[in-house]
Amino acid sequence: MVEISRFATHNEYPADSIEGMDLQHLLHPSTNLAQHQQQGPVVLESANGVYVTDNHGKQYLEGMAGLWCTAIGYGQEELARVAYEQMVKLNYSQLFAGRTNEPSVLLAEKLKKMAPFDAGRVFFGLSGSDANDTQIKLIWYYNNALGRPEKKKIISRKRGYHGVTIASGSLTGLPPFHAAFDLPMPGVLHTTSPHYYSEAQEGESEVAFLQRLVDDLTQMIEREGPETVAAFIAEPIMGAGGVIVPPENYYPSIQQVLDKYDIAFIDDEVICGFGRTGTPFGAQSMDIKPTTMSIAKALSSAYLPISAVLLPETMYEAFADRSGELGNFAHGFTYSGHPVCAAVALRNLELMEEQDLFTHAQKMGVILQQRLQQFVGHPIVGEVRGKGLIAALELVRRPLPRQPFAPSAGVGAYCSNACHNAGLVLRNLGDSIAICPPLIIDEQQIDELVSKLAVALDQTQEWANKQGLL
Ligand SMILES: Cc1ncc(COP(=O)(O)O)c(C=O)c1O
Questions:
Q1: Can you tell me whether residue 293 is helix, strand or coil?
Q2: What is the Cα 103 distance to its own chain's centre?
Q3: Which end of the chain is flanked by fewer CB atoms within 10 Å, N or C?
Q4: Which residues line ligand 1 (CB under 6 A)?
Q5: Alpha carbon of 214 to ligand 1 centroid (Å)
Q6: Per-residue DSSP letter, 210
Q7: Contact 406/43 with Cβ under 8 angstroms?
Q8: In a domain, 36, yes or no
């Protein structure tokens, strides 16, 4: 019996078991804490390829690549060897004060070659959140350097996800990430989410919806004053907001508005980067012309934490000029350009190339999207959406016109739990069931994923029926 707090009602786990100790010691990120104290944790012990195994020996197909990140799959010994060798050779060195290390330089060079725009410089961090924080600081610093200190506001989108720090959490457009954290901070604005299925008005065509998105953005900029708006940030395909694929021609239309008002486009490729959407970067699938780019996750396939901001040489030149006046470019983290993280990320990208993984992911993406079409018309599936190896099914009470379940009914959570019981890890984002397997998944494993999901969906429908939710 674990007796530690008023929430500790779970009584199956001995206090010295990993589960019992978890309940005593950890503050879990993005977790319903009261529920967690009752349900207890899931303990993973090992992993290989696209499969993870828990501490009872049960195996699951990891259909979410962890948190959208384990792109090359689990258990790549080569990456462990690279980390070991780099640790033995030079386990740490900084990039502050002009010092450098070989893995960071080589990784920066490689990223510039891969980038879908003319990237001049690479700044390293450790997480997607810190990359997006850095983005805000860089654009502020840049506009100060250009002598336009009033041009500072950032436009993000409702349902976008860009992280959880004070600045990146403000960019995030999901209410739970703001409520009771006193966010968003001033100067961050959220425009309409580009999700036709949930946002379109009655009788509104997709073309008319797109025009409304463009008008909303234009009006927001005009209202705020274009001279005060510095940048627009977007994930090519929204991830944590429910895997939202915007309408055809969305980005070119939005970019016309941004260009008119001289507003930068921050391309958040933290999920979409490195083959996820069927092209090397989401910018290519979705026809985006980035000003700057944030990357993380698949950059190292999550073997070690690393993120980066890629920026054009023109911004770097402005910073360098400013340095003459201000001295240091005073931004950076102890672990910016950590040599072990950089070495592992570099080898991860090389392995992706050697395995021609982006081509494989593109082919598997076509197969996944085709197989998921079988759920169109399922009584509780309102929309099947996605691109490449990222997708979602939206669970609804009635598909058309869309009638969602009450959020308190917990239908999405029931379904992801049913997937878990069936040996499949998927994640519910509200009532959207997200799918984002490691890029190495093969056709047979896609079939396994889809058939386990089918079982879970039917169980969810049966349960929803019994609960009187349908
Ligand atoms: C698009 C996007 N940007 C930023 C982040 C934040 O990354 P991190 O959790 O590494 O801070 C995430 C995390 O899921 C993300 O999906």
A1: strand
A2: 25
A3: N
A4: 67, 127-129, 132, 161-163, 235, 239-240, 268, 270-271, 296
A5: 26
A6: H
A7: no
A8: no
The per-residue DSSP string of 8-25 comes to ----SS-TTSHHHHHHHH
Q: What total of structural domains would you count in the chain?
A: 2
Indicate if 313 and 371 belong to the same structural domain: no
Instruction: State the residue range of the domain holding 398.
Output: 42-72+357-466
CA distances (Å), 265 to each of 87, 369, 385, in order? 37, 29, 25
To test the pocket of ligand 1, the residue of 30, 270, 297, 341 to mutate (highest count of ligand atoms within 8 Å of its CB) is 270
Alpha-helix runs per DSSP H in 154-271: 166-171, 196-199, 206-224, 250-260
Ligand 1 atom closest to 296 (CA): 10
Under a CB-based contact definition with an 8 Å cutoff, are residues 105 and 336 in contact? Answer: no
Alpha carbon nearest to ligand 1 atom 7, residue: 128
Atom of ligand 1 nearest to the CA of 160: 1
What is the arithmetic mean of pLDDT over 90-96? Answer: 98
Is pLDDT of 179 > 80? Answer: yes
Distance from C-alpha of 405 to C-alpha of 403, rounded to nearest angstrom? 7
Residue 459: the pLDDT is 98
In-domain check, residue 16 = no
Give the mean pLDDT of the chain: 96
Residue 11 banded pLDDT, cuts 50, 70, 90:
low
Atom of ligand 1 nearest to the CA of 128: 7
- Among 231, 235, 255, residue whose Cα is nearest residue 172: 235
Cα 395 to averaged position of ligand 1 atoms, centre (Å): 24
Q: Which atom of ligand 1 is nearest to the CA of 238?
A: 1
pTM recorded for the entire structure: 0.97
Report whether pLDDT(115) > 60: yes
Give residue-wise pLDDT tens across range 408-458.
999 999 999 999 999 999 999 999 999 999 999 999 999 999 999 999 999
Q: What is the pLDDT of residue 9?
A: 53
**Residue 349: band (very low, low, confident or very high) from pLDDT cuts 50, 70, 90:** very high
Strands 229-234 and 188-191: unpaired
Domain termination residue (choose one: 354, 375, 407): 354
From ligand 1's centre to the CA of 269, what distance in Å? 9
Determine the distance separating the centroid of ligand 1 and the alpha carbon of 227, expressed in angstroms: 29
CATH classification of the domain holding 112: 3.40.640.10
- Among 271, 274, 299, name the best residue to mutate to test ligand 1's pocket (greatest count of ligand atoms within 8 A of Cβ): 271
Q: Averaged over 205-234, what is the pLDDT? A: 98
Q: What is the pLDDT of residue 6?
A: 44
Choose one of 124, 132, 159, 162 to mutate for the ligand 1 pocket test, by most ligand atoms within 8 angstroms of C-beta: 162
Model confidence at 62, pLDDT cuts 50, 70, 90, reads very high
